[in-house]
Structure formats: structure tokens, C-alpha cells
Amino acid sequence: MKKIVETTDFLALDHINVSIEQSTGVIGLIGPNGAGKTTLLNTFIGQIGLFEGTVVAETAHIAYCPDTPEFDPYLSAFEIMQQSLRLAGKDVNAAKITQTLEQVGLFEHRYRIAGNFSRGMKQRLGIAAALVLEPQLLLLDEPTSALDPFGRADILKIITEVSRKLTVIISSHILSDIQKIATSLIVLNKGQLIYEGPASDFMTVNDHMATLALRDIEAGEATLNYLSHKGAEVQWDGQNQQVVFPDDQLSKILQLMIPMATQIRYLGRHEMTLERSFEDAVLQREGKE
Fold it and tell me: Which CATH code, of 3.60.10, 3.10.20, 3.30.70, 3.30.470, is assigned to 209-270?
């Protein structure tokens, strides 16, 4: 699918081609705030028009839960589930509603009005209102962003369980959450697609990097210039205030840094996490532009 969304100022999505083919499991849609994650999800369900390109999707088999689901505060959870089915033109099935509320841990609160729900309970109810439609593809936009660690863990457990029967695309900038549950990734940065494929491959691609962190952060730029002048292939990671470089240059960097050994806080290979892999991918891409 190719999607371009344009405003008068910028391209929200810049020539993106994505294909969703897997039948079950979790796909992590990641990127920093403003990368285009929500825009991409909204193009899937037809909420945003395209300036150029096409979306080919069976929208009848897609369900969506926004990052902050809102409900009529005077309707009960059970009534909201009924409403979701009616709005989708589906028959109201009490047994299906009960089963779905049990799945997200809200069965005991089925007759409680939504106005008295906590943020985490509303998030569960939003997922339930989507799940009751029996979609083949479930889109979740930042479902854990406003929750405490316990609430996040509960939502991630629900997502993992439901993904055994359908495909879930979860958008998030909390990469540690995505790393726990996603088997595939769609990676965006500044409206551009920088990776699509298995999560394990994305982390493997970027596991060849190493880091030099200094005790005196202000010396970072001078150190970068010094190493570059000596022929080392180095880049400055401004977010983490450290020098990054291919790990096959570890010996060379170590030799060059001997005169400044007392300034070294850390020198070694990256501990590969999804967050680290994403940072490396962005740095490498920006270095080529």
C-alpha cells in the first residue's frame, strides 16, 4: 500500500509502501512523536484522505481503538458493547459481549457506567468494543501511553492473548513495550518508512555498533572531531550525548583514546534493545542524508 498524506506545510507520510499479510501476531508500529504513526493508522481505516496513492484494505474486517477512547459517561460497559455492534451493523449477541468483557477483565464491571471508569479500564473497554466486532486486523493507537506500569502490563497481556487469533498493529513510542510483544515491525521517522519486517532482523541489522561515553559531556564534540580527524568513522548521538561507531573499529578507537583514558565513562558494544536499534537506524539514515 502506498500512502502520501500532504498538508500545506509538509508530507505527513512520504511515499510509504506497507503490506500487512500475517494472519496472527503483533506488529509494532514505532517511531518518535510526530513520525506519522497515527496518520498511517487513520489511512488504513479511511479516516484521512490521500493526496496521492492508494490503500487496499477490507475495512469491514478492521477494528480500531484510539489512544484515548471516550464513551458516553452514562452508559454501562455492556451498553457500550451493544452500541459498538449496532454502529457496525452487526447483531447484538449478549454471549459474545460477555465473553469479550471477560477477555479484557471487565466482566465484573459490565453494568458499571463508563463515567466511573479509570483510564486503564477505559482502555480495556476500548479494546473490548473493537474486539467484539470480531475483526481480522485490530489497530491500537498508543494503548499504554497514559498508564502506570501495572496498567501497561495488563494491556500488553491482553494484546498478547488476542493476537493468537488475529493480527494486531500496535502503535507506540514506548519501545520497551513493543519489544516485549511484537514479532514484526513497521518503523517510521519523519513520515518516512525506514524498516518493515521481522523485529529480530531489525535488531540484528544494528547490532554492529559500539558506544563511547565520556565523563565530561561537553568534551563530546571535541572528541568527535578528534576521532574523525584521525580517520575514525564516528557519529554523534545527541539524544544520549555519546559517540557511536561500527564495532569493528573498537580497537582503533581504544588506541586513539589512550591519551584521554581518564575521561572515558564507557567504551564497548551496544546492549541491543529495540530502543537502541531504532536510535542507530535513525542515526545511520540521517548520516546518509
Answer: 3.30.70
